[in-house]
Automatic annotation (TrEMBL):
Family, similarity comment: Belongs to the WD repeat STRAP family.
A GO CC annotation given for this chain: SMN complex
Protein name: Serine-threonine kinase receptor-associated protein
One GO MF term attached to the UniProt entry: RNA binding
Keyword Chloroplast attached: no
Organism field: Laodelphax striatellus (Small brown planthopper)
WD repeats, residue ranges: 56-97, 97-138, 140-181, 263-304
């Protein structure tokens, strides 16, 4: 199957660069994918096919960060209108709105969906109790520049964040204090917590670095042939993917750090990438305004990829330049 051509599924609909995306866990209805875009309209899709489900409308500026809770019943978004919003992901209606004093770059739910955190250009992390939305949030202060990403992890006992101050910081929920910090030579563009919570994946400069999430010891660091904007580790920890300024998607062996393959599909720099919860595909978002879904194992029947005896059917090729919705409609 190594000789088969990778043919991504292209998800159209956004009108400006796609800058962030997130998957739900696997639910009884499959899994779901949400995307953030500078057009101000985050979109929800079926995760394994990219089929459009709905668009959350209400922001008045570019949306920088998105999140889904585990069972995909709630969605969240943070935007340049200084607002973070929580949505009913089933009805598409806005449920709660949290005003900030600057651009909200990152949002995340706790594992039980009771808490909601934001990271903003105010250099602050806020933690809101969604059961008491009128209550003042817990505020974590320590970053010296705008925050790019923040996530709950370690059973919600801690948070991890990275910012334009070239640091990654871990925060203890009990004390609301910073307990660990890692400094980089360049701004960490992306941060991912592995699905089992044990590994942190950070893209910075032309490197992807993996840390043990407990001690923040460096597991390994891999150099990439371009400035890398985002990286994601497969749930089984065998490979990782990344993308950046040269428009390519790269696949690496996680254990050896060797490049497995690279390929172009986007027509602009890659801003974000994430593996699906089952590890069968990964999604990427780009300056070109599209999301693309890529097979982890090329030549396997999965989602809209149909293969017979390991050979992709001819119809697969048409997906590379056509939206999934158009293909399904036809």
């Amino acid at each position: 199957m190594a000789n088969l051509r990778q043919t991504p599924l292209t998800c159209s609909g956004h009108t400006r660069p796609v800058v962030n995306l997130a998957f739900s866990d696997i639910t009884e209805c499959g899994y779901f994918l949400i995307s953030a875009c500078k057009d101000g309209k985050p979109m929800l899709r079926q995760g394994d096919t990219g089929d459009w489900i709905g668009t959350f409308e209400g922001h008045k500026g570019a949306v920088w960060g998105v999140a889904l809770n585990k069972d995909a019943t709630k969605a969240a978004s943070g935007a340049a209108d200084f607002n973070a919003m929580v949505w009913d992901a089933v009805s598409g209606q806005g449920v709660q709105s949290f005003q900030h004093k600057h651009i909200v770059k990152s949002v995340d739910f706790s594992s039980d969906s009771a808490l909601f955190t934001t990271g903003s250009n105010e250099k602050l992390i806020r933690i809101f109790d969604l059961n008491k939305p009128e209550a003042s949030p817990v505020v974590l202060n320590g970053h010296t520049s705008g925050i790019r990403h923040v996530f709950f992890f370690r059973n919600d006992t801690r948070l991890v964040s990275c910012a334009d101050d070239k640091t990654l910081r871990v925060w203890d929920r009990a004390s609301n204090q910073e307990v660990k910090k890692v400094e980089f030579n360049s701004v960490p563009n992306s941060l991912e917590v592995s699905r089992d919570g044990t590994i942190l994946t950070v893209a910075h400069g032309d490197c992807v670095t993996f840390f043990d999430s407990d001690r923040l010891d460096k597991i390994r660091e891999v150099k990439v042939p371009t400035r890398v904007n985002s990286a994601s580790l497969n749930p089984d920890r065998t490979i990782f993917v990344c993308g950046g300024e040269d428009l390519k998607m790269y696949k690496f062996d996680f254990l050896t750090g060797n490049e497995i393959e690279s390929f172009k599909g986007h027509f602009g720099p890659v801003h974000c990438t994430r593996f699906s919860p089952d590890g069968e595909l990964y999604a990427s978002g780009s300056e070109d305004g599209t999301l693309r879904l890529w097979q982890t194992t090329v030549g396997k029947t999965y989602g809209l990829w149909k293969c017979v005896d390991g050979v992709p059917l001819p119809a697969q090729d048409s997906l590379s330049n056509t939206s999934i919705q158009e293909v399904v409609a036809n």
